[in-house]
């Protein structure tokens, strides 16, 4: 892990931005063909692609009560309890995000407002295979539930044995999800976006997936809404000399094990800490089961930036706009005002990133690739939409009639002015 | 304007959805080339494209105080006052949308929260030429101002004489915008996204434009955020037999004059009203200055749907999810619960659509193309972003340490578990 000394005014060139994987031309064509097939042949096409890509024939992809019961039998009772506790925490946090409709009346009798409505139907994609993430179920489903979405559909690809992850099934059942399909890849995205005989279409699709899922989501965007397409995960640690090197190193590595493309970055004014962390990362790396992934990530995207002061370190953080930011300083709260751009901020040594990844409450779907400059974590408002309400009274209308017509004509829109003036004829009705 | 009788259960096939104009391959290549040129040659490239596309050489595109002063001299004082009144209304409405940061503390001493921050810098594109829309300035700038965006930059293409619209300049000045550039097209979008020697880059670009602007916004998306790319405008009028045919017709035509692709739709259970509106539209059409546009729009995309009841008419509206919805019935407010999908709802005959287009307060940037099922009007929250805050106390950490580590291992993420367990060593520090 290289140490770079950052001089005043050099921060501008730092960036976490990397070009997103937009797939090869061949992958894009495969995805387009799959979507066309599913639009044309529906359930039959889904069955055929599941056989082809997941290696298993699934006659009816709808998950049965029996399958769920078996998942409960197999999963350790302690894990079920942990999932239940996580659900409670995540729900409590997201309930604070709920927004309501509002209206106000004016002296002239007119009423203006904003109506907030949940989406009708949402599809959540949960990756399958070796990486079964029940936390993806919680983080995508709970905000939709809190928003009041009536129909939440879960799709996840079956293993070669036709089965799903026990933890995923239990997490979904604990949230009351009853419509789950054993299907994945671009075919699942197409079925959710356009519907089949057996599956009603949804209005929005969220959740992570491989490159085919990401390309399919891009392709159906517009037909339905989608969540952001995430880049590789990132952590930045803002630390002063009070941070403990072995903790910083462990936190950097917890990011690095996700993906060889993940970025783990330490920003500190302390040269001593920088050197200690450098040594600790190397030492801890050797003992990790996902060592090869983490080592690659650290080598390619791991960085230690040493700045002239802690304030300059904050500048670096704002420049990077990291997905996750840990603040490991003597008084971490004191930086909340200065830090402008980050997906999630973890304050102090008792808030290592895994605390927030699936347990504390906030969402783990966060803006990557420097987009925390303008994007937000997934939340309840992503599953609600707003409608403006305008109810002008006769008095308000009469007061402003000429102004509105004049404005319309200023913009060259005569029929707009006449729509206003059409109301003049009322008396002679 | 055709009348279609809708039977029970036939609503499913109705749709406002049309494929968005994604441009020709040639247009996409032109836009890519322009963006590359501006990234490479900056201000020089912008000057060159302005000469080429707008037919005028602009040495320094920054609008001067002198140009603004001249615009004030030329615009009628009454129009300046109308713009000021509109600004007051729009600001009052949007101030209600402002959301704040929140935090909560738990018994165990941990703190969770959500920090709301305005974007740093926003660019607003305002079309030039014959269609100078000061309302675009108001509707894009005011939400950003209310959100607290510090730097708002306006770009708009110069006319062949090198000048801008007086109304656009005055509207911007009234809002306190001091950074305005005479540049348009893909070159303006590229300059905003990537910056030049004279123009600092922004974080988000909003505002309408022609196909080149739309393609350029798509191209720079990811580098910066963009607002939605709007389809043709739409109005649906939900009316019963109490509606006045000449008012309904005038309102339908005010939409139709925007664009030959615009959709104007009446949904009513009243056959009598349907026939009267049909005749009125024809009669009023002939007297409009933008008659040819409106006539084309009515012919291609105008529809009158007659349903078996008013409730079925509401079903049709929800199926269409129109950008604008006027409710012209005896008790319009009574439908607010039933109507689920619309960008903006105009209640009663004193709220024709032009009332809301630039004057009443709500935003006129609304979801088109049926996307009101999942999208919202442009608003203050589009110029704010959120950051999750997690501050676990030692007590909270000790309580949940094992659960968090166990969850990490369930997901196969050993380094996550070790990041938690690294904190155990504290005592022996």
Structure description:
Two copies of one chain form a homodimer. Chain A has 429 residues and is α/β, with parallel strands linked by helices. Chain A folds into three domains: 2-19 and 231-360, 3-Layer(aba) Sandwich (Rossmann fold); 25-226, Rossmann fold (3-Layer(aba) Sandwich), CATH 3.40.50; 392-428, no CATH class. Chain A has 14 helices and 14 strands. The first copy, chain A, has helices at 25-54, 65-74, 77-95, 134-147, 166-174, 185-194, 211-220, 245-256, 271-285, 291-301, 310-320, 353-358, 394-410, 414-421; strands spanning 2-5, 102-105, 111-118, 121-125, 151-156, 179-182, 204-206, 225-226, 234-239, 263-268, 303-306, 324-328, 344-347, 384-391. In chain A, the strands form three sheets. The first copy, chain A, has a six-stranded parallel sheet with strand order 1-11-10-9-12-13, sandwiched between helices. Chain A has a five-stranded parallel sheet with strand order 6-5-4-7-8, sandwiched between helices. In chain A, helix 1 crosses helix 6 (185-194), helix 3 (77-95) runs parallel beside helix 4 (134-147) and helix 3 packs across helix 5. The longest helix of chain A is centred in the first third of the chain and has 30 residues, at 25-54. Strand 14 (384-391) of chain A pairs parallel with strand 13 of chain B.
């Amino acid at each position: 892990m290289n140490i770079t000394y950052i001089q005043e005014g050099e921060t501008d060139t730092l960036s976490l931005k990397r070009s997103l994987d937009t797939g090869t031309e061949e992958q894009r064509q495969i995805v387009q063909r799959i979507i066309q097939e599913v639009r044309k042949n529906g359930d039959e096409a889904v069955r055929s692609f599941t056989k082809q890509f997941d290696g298993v024939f699934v006659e009816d992809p709808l998950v049965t009560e029996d399958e769920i019961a078996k998942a409960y039998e197999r999963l350790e009772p302690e894990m079920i309890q942990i999932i239940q506790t996580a659900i409670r925490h995540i729900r409590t946090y997201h309930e604070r995000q709920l927004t309501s409709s509002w209206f106000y009346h004016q002296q002239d009798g007119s009423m203006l407002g904003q109506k907030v409505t949940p989406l009708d139907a949402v599809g959540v994609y949960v990756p399958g295979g070796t990486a079964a993430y029940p936390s993806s179920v919680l983080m995508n489903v709970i905000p939709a539930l809190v928003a009041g979405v009536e129909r939440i559909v879960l799709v996840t690809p079956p293993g070669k044995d036709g089965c799903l992850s026990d933890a995923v099934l239990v997490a979904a059942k604990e949230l009351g999800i009853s419509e789950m399909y054993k299907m994945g890849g671009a075919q699942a995205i197409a079925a959710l976006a356009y519907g089949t005989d057996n599956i009603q279409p949804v209005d929005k699709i969220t959740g992570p997936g491989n490159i085919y899922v990401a390309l399919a989501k891009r392709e159906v965007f517009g037909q339905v809404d989608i969540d952001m397409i995430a880049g590789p995960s990132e952590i930045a640690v803002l630390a002063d000399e009070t941070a403990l090197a072995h903790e910083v190193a462990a936190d950097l590595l917890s990011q690095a094990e996700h993906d060889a493309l993940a970025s783990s970055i330490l920003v500190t004014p302390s040269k001593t800490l920088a050197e200690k962390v450098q040594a600790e990362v190397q030492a801890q790396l050797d003992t990790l089961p996902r060592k090869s992934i983490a080592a690659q990530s650290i080598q390619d995207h791991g960085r230690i930036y040493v700045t002239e002061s802690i304030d300059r370190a904050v500048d670096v953080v704002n420049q990077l706009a990291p997905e996750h930011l840990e603040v490991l300083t003597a008084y971490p709260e004191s930086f909340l005002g200065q830090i402008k751009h980050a997906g999630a901020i973890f304050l102090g040594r008792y808030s290592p990133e895994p605390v927030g990844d699936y347990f504390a409450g906030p969402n783990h779907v966060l803006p990557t690739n420097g987009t925390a400059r303008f994007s937000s974590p997934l939340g309840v408002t992503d599953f609600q939409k707003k409608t403006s309400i305008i109810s002008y009274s006769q008095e308000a209308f009469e007061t402003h009639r000429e102004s509105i017509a004049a404005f319309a004509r200023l913009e060259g829109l005569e029929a707009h002015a006449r729509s206003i003036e059409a109301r003049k004829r009322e008396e002679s009705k």
